[in-house]
Prior knowledge:
Layout: H1 22-33, E1 42-45, H2 50-61, E2 65-67, E3 69-75, E4 78-89, E5 92-93, E6 97-98, H3 100-106, H4 114-131, E7 142-146, H5 154-165, E8 170-177, H6 180-186, E9 192-197, H7 217-226
Parallel strand pairs: 1-2, 1-7, 7-8, 8-9
Antiparallel strand pairs: 3-4, 4-5, 4-6
Helix pairs in contact: 1-2
Amino acid sequence: MALRPVIMSGPIISGAPEFRDRHEAGRRLATMLVPLTPTHPVVLALPRGGVPVAFEVARRLHAPLGLLFARKIGMPGAEEFGLGAIAAEGKEHAEPVLDEALMRQVGITREALVPAIRHQRAEIARQQAEYGSATPPIDGRVVVVVDDGIATGGTMRAALRVVRHHGALRVVLAVPVAARETLADLAAECDDLVCLATPSDFRAVGIHYADFRQVEDSEVRTLLAQARTVP
């Protein structure tokens, strides 16, 4: 029988870490995930920021590294204000995950978001073309979904749901840092949850990294090429 450990039980570790960069955060996160190694997991990163973190996790677990494409759906005219997200695994897009309560609060209908959804689907298609075939099969596998941090959680929620939809045996959410309330909401979307820190002064993911420069497409391609793959 495959080992399916609960990586972290009880309260999530709190306290603001001093991550030097995403690679250092990934190495620390990987240490917590070592018990998963016998399950031969697949590691999926949310591009682009999650890729350096996931690269270190995949290397430590001797696991294949792939990409899980997910994009935020923003309010028309204020795109940074997220009303939902959409994700894709392989070439198949899942239905958008929308915050219906928030949409009612700001007076936005589902129809009004159709252009934004269409745009984000096009951006996912662009990323898929840019990075090539970058998603290992996940049906029946333990899947570790990795990002560099979580603020509101809409994009990650869409990502976790598409992994479940495509038949993952067990879904593990792993991030270096996240907002406490968001993790509590996401717990129902995964089987295991690993987070190194849930600082009370969270504010934004980037403030918990000394180096939070943008990850470029070229770096994503380089890390994918370097990642060790296993059958």
